[in-house]
Specification:
Number of helices: 15
Structural class: alpha+beta
CATH topology of the largest domain: MetI-like fold
Number of strands: 12
Distance between the termini: 22 Å
Radius of gyration: 33 Å
Length: 405
């Protein structure tokens, strides 16, 4: 934007600075999560990710082995060991929890029982006495740990039992749950955009209204409906007389393999659930895009004798690819990262868990392995990132099309 004098308006700089600030605000947490994914549990618990490149201090405690194992050295009975388990150096030490940093490294501490304790900078200690003694001793110390990074968190997640199966299950859920609503919404959007029929405006209003319905409100009635369909009493007819009805696989089957109902705890159930939840946004987005397409192309095709289906397949769909790609990104991201719907509409057996459910199980019921959260997050988003970067050039164009008339 240029001013009358040919200079850039100050508003342009304000916009650029605002965009830069927003990028920084969104990037910092992501960078912190990425750095955290390569740190050990001890480092994460005692210091923030921004200190990852500097040494960190932590207070810790170690216990000596029983003094009955002491060896005689130069007329003294000595117990030796090292308080450090993963490198670093000791700055202070003490033998009481009231004074954990009472002594400097190398200083000889006189204990109440007459023994002496010395801790070196590298963590080695000597607990000594002039005569045989017994018992154990706690050593309190302050350690400086140098910056270090590890791949253990990623190895722990990737080598977990059943992770490959969970990855395949997530793809099995996400891909059909992305393709099915796109196919249905494309037909519906074309009809609402270019076909004249009674009640069209009312249908558009209903679609817009469904955008604000919370997903959680529909889970219970939808699952109740699926259960009712799956366990419905089938009225015997000539094709079902004498057959045994069972629920297995994707639905309710007779013993001759004929499917007559839906099993809610199946992939078919979750595909239909994701389709229903994603259709309002898909129809709204695609309809707004299709309305903005040149009317002359549609009218010329009709003059040439093309049917509505031919217009839709040969003209509308190719021109609507940016909008289709935009919705595909959103739908795939949502279905891939979903845990709530998968928990409700899939069984809780290990062979049916999606990645989000498997990662939740890895943490345990009490969150014992919480240090793998950051690594789990980046492993989980790897596939959505590939989808996003593959289709991102269509994202803005598809979202903005039809927004301004």
């Amino acid at each position: 934007m240029l001013s009358i004098g040919g200079r850039k308006s100050p508003l342009i700089w304000a916009v650029h600075l605002s965009v830069l600030l927003l990028v920084v605000i969104w990037t910092i947490p992501t960078a912190g999560l990425f750095i955290t994914s390569f740190r050990t549990a001890d480092q994460i618990s005692v210091s923030g990710w921004w200190t990852a490149l500097s040494s960190s201090e932590r207070n810790a405690v170690a216990r000596t082995p029983d003094a009955s194992t002491a060896k005689e050295v130069n007329g003294k009975y000595v117990v030796t060991g090292n308080v450090l388990q993963s490198g670093g150096s000791v700055a202070k030490f003490g033998w009481s929890s009231l004074h954990p940093t009472q002594y400097d490294v190398g200083q000889v501490a006189q204990l109440r029982d007459g023994t002496t304790l010395t801790v070196a900078k590298d963590g080695t200690y000597q607990w000594a006495n002039d005569k045989p003694f017994s018992g154990t001793r706690r050593i309190f110390f302050t350690a400086k740990t140098p910056p270090s990074f590890t791949l253990d968190n990623y190895v722990h997640v990737l080598t977990a039992n059943g992770m490959l199966r969970a990855f395949i299950n997530s793809l099995t859920v996400a891909v059909p749950a992305t393709v099915i609503p796109i196919l249905i919404a494309a037909y519906a959007a074309f009809a609402l955009a270019w076909m004249q029929f009674p009640g069209r405006s009312l249908l558009i209003a209903i679609v817009v209204g469904l955008l604000v319905v919370p997903l959680q409100m529909s889970l219970i009635p939808l699952l109740t409906l699926y259960n009712a369909i799956g366990h419905a009493t089938v009225v015997p007819d000539s094709s079902l007389m004498g057959h045994v009805l069972t629920i297995s696989g994707l639905g309710l089957h007779s013993d001759d393999g004929k499917m007559i109902g839906i099993n809610p705890k199946s992939y078919l159930g979750i595909w239909l659930a994701h389709t229903g939840f994603g259709l309002p946004l898909a129809i709204y987005l695609l309809r707004n895009y299709m309305v903005g397409l040149p009317r002359e192309i549609i009218e010329s095709s009709r003059v040439d004798g093309a049917t509505d289906f031919q217009i839709f397949r040969k003209i509308i769909l190719p021109l609507s690819f940016p909008a289709l790609a935009s919705f595909a990104i959103f739908q795939f991201l949502w279905t891939w990262n979903d845990l709530l719907v998968a928990t409700v509409f899939l069984s809780h057996q290990q062979d049916s868990l999606v990645m989000t459910g498997k990662l939740k199980d890895l943490l345990g019921s009490h969150g014992g392995d919480w240090e793998i959260l950051a690594a789990s997050a980046f492993i989980s988003i790897s596939v959505p990132l590939l989808v996003f970067f593959a289709l991102q050039k269509y994202l803005v164009r598809g979202l903005l099309a039809g927004s301004v008339k």
